[in-house]
């Protein structure tokens, strides 16, 4: 056995910077966030040592072109020479991971990984840091390069406690050093910071975060400052909101404002909220901090209890995040419940814009559903109405479970003043089925298309015999569409026919349509599937005997004309029901139209000839 030698891993720093910039950070612009976070942490550390200490961050931009330099200065805790060796010179080492932090992840600092400063190498070939520790000792200069080399020296002059970081921009990063950009970015990251952030650029001073709203730490106070809160939301989130709901949690360590989006949102839209950790922007895209149904709001959230991932763009999915998500969702729900009690107009306005979100929440929460049900909109045979209005009619609310079913029956149902709700849209049939559980005395019942035919009037047998021949012709004309004809009387009289599909015939239609649109092989598979479906797969074309045209068709002496008219009525019924037509049916439609034009024109010429 040969003796093994021990070696030490080497780190290729420029390779690591590549990894960070391409995979960890979403853009080089995050260097400013990392510098601001370090400044914030340094001020926090000094405040812990000197309670009542007032922090400040100054950013200075000087020079032009490739001489453009940025200096970020804080009056925080600073670094001693030993600190520099331990924390700056060692990647992955951080002064911010105390014993407690290791135990429960809790720390009063934002940083914890000991890599953030490296992001500065994405925009500068050198990092120069001048620092004076608040604990005393000489002032120090540290110069670091992306190849992993660094120098340290003691300064001759004593600086006041704090740290200055100097960066000179690389040609690619010049944009990130422009005054306007930096001013915006500082506001973006630091708008909520509790101490002044001041930018000096080319001799001009800008105070970046002049307003520090008092409702930030106590969101309930926001209620009395509506205009101010909405203006702040617009400045920070770039949208003109009209309403908001304050969000609080029991611990008081997470809070925020949920701004109601001023436009309807797609159900699949990304729900991203802006989250501040210890008052510094952490994430613009936090998706997991609120429940899924909260897609009608964009939230401004601040927390000091959640743990960011190394990229800073998300939070660890742990028990605490789960609790926070639940509590924030609960606060939002309570805000809506309060509106339902005392500000119904405000809630109505919100529901009109975000009905889908409200329905998504109501499906999950029966109590909430009971509170807001009367304002939820539904499509019905009485038009688009709010549920409260539909319920006030005191009838059983019949509902379908698919849009197709609703289309099949709504003509007949509405003509007979039967109240039917289209439950085919997302959440609607679930909400209808839940209604009697959520609201006392409410009655709902699922309706099948063939049940509507029960309100048809039968044709007396004597009269029926009269149409025997015509019906036989109709049946044989419709046979190839797997449909049979029946004579009934129904309202409205101007509706000549009604088409209904059984579950099986609906499946058959779908199979036929699919096989028309697919390859030969697949279509033969579909063909053998459809041949397995029994003759119960017949649909029905109801001919309305109260309709004058139907009466004429059924009593027409022209045996050639009857099947063609029936076929045309059949395709017309398909169109009325919004069914996709197969090739055969489209042909019938085309030929029928041409034939009828021909007949019409011929009849006209014959009349003229007679005259
Ligand atoms: N402005 C500053 N004032 C005092 N110390 C600083 C300052 N900037 C950096 N440091 C020191 O340098 C260390 C490394 O900083 P770096 O930003 O790389 O990592 P971090 O902030 O500890 O963790 P993270 O990678 O999560 O940001 C810090 O732990 C801190 O000790």
TrEMBL record:
The keyword Glycoprotein does not apply. One of its GO terms (molecular function) is ATP hydrolysis activity. The keyword Nucleotidyltransferase does not apply. Gene3D superfamilies: 3.30.230.80, Histidine kinase-like ATPase, C-terminal domain (3.30.565.10). Keywords: ATP-binding, Chaperone, Nucleotide-binding. Belongs to the heat shock protein 90 family. This is Molecular chaperone Hsp90.
């Amino acid at each position: 056995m040969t003796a093994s030698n021990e070696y030490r891993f080497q780190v290729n720093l420029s390779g690591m910077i590549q990894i960070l910039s391409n995979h960890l950070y979403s853009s080089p612009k995050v260097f400013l966030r990392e510098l601001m976070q370090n400044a914030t942490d340094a001020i926090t550390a000094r405040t812990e040592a000197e309670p009542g200490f007032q922090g400040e961050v100054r950013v200075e931009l000087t020079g032009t072109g490739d001489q453009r330099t940025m200096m970020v200065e804080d009056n925080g805790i600073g670094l001693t020479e030993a600190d520099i060796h331990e924390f700056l010179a060692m990647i992955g080492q951080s002064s911010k991971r105390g014993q407690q932090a290791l135990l429960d992840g809790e720390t009063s600092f934002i940083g914890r990984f000991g890599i953030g400063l490296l992001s500065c190498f994405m925009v500068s070939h050198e990092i120069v840091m001048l620092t004076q520790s608040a604990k005393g000792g000489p002032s120090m200069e540290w110069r670091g390069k992306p190849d992993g080399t660094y120098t340290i020296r003691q300064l001759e002059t004593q600086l006041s406690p704090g740290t200055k970081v100097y960066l000179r921009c690389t040609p690619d990063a010049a944009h990130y050093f422009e005054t306007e950009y930096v001013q915006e970015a500082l506001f973006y990251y630091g708008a909520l910071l509790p101490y002044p952030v001041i930018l000096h650029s080319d001799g001009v001073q800008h105070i970046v975060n002049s307003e520090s709203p008092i409702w930030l730490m106590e969101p309930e106070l926001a209620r009395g400052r509506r205009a101010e809160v909405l203006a702040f939301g617009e400045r920070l989130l770039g949208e003109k909101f009209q309403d908001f709901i304050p969000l609080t949690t029991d611990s008081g360590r997470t809070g925020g404002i949920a701004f109601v989006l001023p436009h309807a949102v797609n159900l699949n839209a990304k729900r991203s909220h802006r989250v501040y950790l210890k008052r510094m922007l952490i994430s613009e895209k936090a998706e997991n901090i609120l429940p899924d149904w909260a897609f009608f709001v964009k939230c401004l959230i601040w927390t000091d209890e959640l743990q960011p991932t190394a990229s800073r763009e998300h939070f660890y999915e742990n028990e605490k995040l789960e609790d926070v998500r639940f509590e924030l969702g609960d606060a939002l729900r309570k805000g809506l419940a309060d509106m339902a009690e005392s500000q119904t107009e405000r809630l109505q306005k919100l529901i009109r814009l975000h009905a889908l979100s409200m329905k998504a929440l109501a499906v999950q929460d029966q109590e909430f559903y009971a509170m807001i049900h009367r304002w939820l909109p539904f499509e019905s045979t009485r038009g688009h109405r709010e549920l409260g209005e539909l319920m006030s009619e005191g009838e059983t609310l019949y509902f379908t479970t698919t849009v197709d079913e609703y289309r099949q029956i709504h003509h007949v149902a509405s003509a007979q003043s039967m109240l039917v709700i289209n439950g085919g849209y997302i959440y609607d049939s679930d909400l209808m089925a839940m209604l009697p559980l959520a609201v006392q005395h409410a009655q709902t019942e699922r309706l099948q298309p063939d049940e509507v035919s029960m309100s048809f009037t039968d044709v007396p047998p004597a009269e029926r015999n009269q149409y025997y021949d015509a019906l036989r012709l109709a049946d044989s004309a419709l046979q190839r569409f797997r449909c049979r004809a029946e004579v009934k009387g129904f309202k409205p009289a101007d509706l000549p026919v009604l088409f209904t599909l059984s579950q099986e015939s609906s499946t058959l239609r779908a199979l036929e349509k699919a096989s028309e649109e697919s390859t030969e092989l697949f279509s033969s598979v579909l063909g053998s599937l459809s041949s397995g479906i029994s003759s119960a797969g017949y649909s029905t074309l109801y001919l309305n005997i109260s309709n004058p045209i139907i009466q004429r068709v059924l009593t027409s002496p022209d045996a050639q004309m009857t099947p063609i008219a029936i076929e045309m009525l059949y395709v017309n019924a398909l169109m009325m029901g919004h069914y996709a037509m197969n090739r055969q049916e489209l042909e019938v439609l085309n030929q029928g139209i041409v034939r009828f034009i021909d007949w019409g024109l011929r009849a006209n010429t014959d009349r003229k000839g007679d005259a």
